[in-house]
Amino acid sequence: MFFSSWDVIARTVIVGVLSYTSLIILLRVSGKRTLSKMNAFDLIVTVALGSTLATILLNKNVKYTEGITAMLVLIGMQYMVAWLSVRSKSVQNLVKASPELLYYHGRYLDKSMKKARVQTVEILQAARSSGIHSMEQVEAVVLETDGSISVLKKSDKQEGSTLRNVKSD
After folding, report:
1. What is the distance between the alpha carbons of residues 153 and 138, in angstroms, rounded to a whole number?
2. Rounded distance between C-alpha atoms, residue 120 and residue 127, angstroms
3. CA 158, CA 72: separation in Å to the nearest integer?
4. Residue 23 — very low, low, confident or very high, per pLDDT cuts 50/70/90?
């Protein structure tokens, strides 16, 4: 129950070091996009990679090469989807959520907030974290595609607005 043999411990250490090193190399080779926090697909890949690494480490029936192949497939699929989403609007819409406007011109957008399951206190927290003392200083609050909340201060300049791709209900 607590200890079966030194062979099992040795295998876990050796395969663990090899798997971890391989994962680091694969992630470095696949590029920065693999580690970004852009959308739900990236979260799925991250969780799947962690699960695969754990399986390689703890399941002696899974060979090291099988585990590395599984990691390669996951990273390859993530790379392919990211590549396609840059080139195809329909793939991008399928994989990536749109930013959502939650507050605009002094008004909380209740319909958008309910849809996004965001409470007023979360918007106020994001404003405080951005150094905002009063919501009168705020032009807009956006729920980003990665789940973070951006607070945009009021500005005299309207051209080149960062709100051009943001949905509002």
Report:
1. 4
2. 11
3. 45
4. confident
**Confidence category of residue 158, pLDDT binned at 50, 70, 90:** low
Residue whose structure tokens are 């930013």: 99
SS3 152: strand
CB 99 within 8 A of CB 166: yes
Collapsing DSSP to helix, strand or coil, 143 comes out as strand
| Burial class (CB within 10 angstroms; exposed 0-12, middle 13-18, buried 19+) of 1 | exposed
Q: What is the mean pLDDT of residues 49-56?
A: 91
- Residue 149 pLDDT level (bands cut at 50, 70, 90): very high
Residue whose entry in the numeric block shows the structure tokens 């918007």 = 123
- Per DSSP (E only), the strands in 46-129 are 100-104, 107-108
Contact present, 102 and 162 (Cβ < 8 Å): no
3-state helix, strand and coil shares in percent for the chain, rounded to the nearest 5: 60, 10, 30
Contacts within 8 Å (CB) and 24+ apart, 11-20: 11/60, 12/57, 12/58, 15/56, 15/57, 15/64, 16/57, 18/64, 19/53, 19/56, 19/57, 19/64, 19/67, 19/68, 20/53
Q: Is the pTM of this model over 0.85?
A: no
Please report the pLDDT score of residue 33 as a whole number: 58
